[in-house]
Amino acid sequence: MRWTWMSVVAMLLITAAIPAGATVTVDSTNGTPGAVASAEKGARLWQSALSARGGCLGNAAITFGQLSGRKGEYDTKTAIVTIDQDVADSKVAGVVIHELAHHAHLRCGAYADDAFTTAFYQAQGLPQSRGWFDYSAGWAATPAEIFAEAVAAVVIGKKPHAISVTGDALRVVEAWMKNRPLPDLTPAPASTSTTTTTTTTTTSPTTSPEPVKTSTHSLTGTGTAPKPPPGAPSEPTTPTPIVRPAVKTTCAPDCVFIGAFMVD
């Protein structure tokens, strides 16, 4: 990235406007004044919404460039957010929040929080074995992208991308953002009603009732269970533990490195 004296001055001015807890700089070199103002607004809203997580957010930077059709991307190694120059000024803030959500997700360790991951996957209906950055099912079905979109939806009340997010997933993400206990997603027991019907029957005293045959198959779980097929285990087996793909975290002691790759 090429730096100029004016861009450094602009970055210093914008950095001073970001509340404590995270330092977000905006390079205005390739951005319009409206886009830069929108990026600054997005950074402010993001930092305010995650103030409870402020201690782990760390530094990030925002710049503008050509992304060949993508609205934005986040470099996990450098913590630089790039916004496509063709994004409308009014849309920049939402894209910035989505990309900075990737920053928070990694720097604050949400990807390694098993309780949060399990709750989020359950709320969104995702396979528990899918890795956070597993793009094999498509961009919009990638857990990390859904998380980032959920953060944006919580912060500004709308999603900057066409990604489906459930209401339960929004609740889980908002609780994480505010560092609160995760919501209980256990479904409430269905209410049941019992109807009693009285039937009067007349039996001839000279006729003996025919014996009732007992079936070996039962819809209610009573009676004699059918024999299992040959080779079937006689006792339930222990479920296989969930193993998600690991995320690289090798780095010097004073930094956080999650691998050199881009997330959109």
Care to give the gist of this entry?
The chain has 264 residues and is an alpha/beta fold. The protein has helices spanning 5-17, 33-49, 54-57, 89-107, 114-124, 143-156, 167-177; strands spanning 22-26, 58-65, 72-75, 80-84, 262-263.
Topology, element by element:
Blueprint: H1 5-17, E1 22-26, H2 33-49, H3 54-57, E2 58-65, E3 72-75, E4 80-84, H4 89-107, H5 114-124, H6 143-156, H7 167-177, E5 262-263
Parallel strand pairs: 1-2, 2-4
Antiparallel strand pairs: 3-4, 3-5
SSE pattern: HEHHEEEHHHHE
Helix content: 25-40%
Question: Strand sequence of the main sheet, in spatial order?
Answer: 1-2-4-3-5
Global mean pLDDT:
75
Report the total helices.
7
Rg over CA atoms, rounded to whole Å, is 28 Å
Largest pleated sheet: 5 strands, mixed
The proportion of residues in beta strands is: 5-15%
Count the beta strands.
5
Distance between the termini: 19 Å
The low-pLDDT segments are 1-20, 200-228, 234-239, 248-260
Principal-axis shape equals globular
Structural class: alpha/beta
Report what the structure shows.
The model is unreliable at 1-20, 200-228, 234-239 and 248-260 (pLDDT under 50). The protein is α/β, with parallel strands linked by helices. Helix 4 (89-107) crosses helix 6 (143-156). It is globular and about 60 Å long. It contains 7 helices and 5 strands. It has a 5-stranded mixed β-sheet. The longest helix has 19 residues, at 89-107. The protein has helices at residues 5-17, 33-49, 54-57, 89-107, 114-124, 143-156, 167-177, and strands at 22-26, 58-65, 72-75, 80-84, 262-263. Strand 3 and strand 4 (80-84) form a beta hairpin. The relative contact order is 0.12.
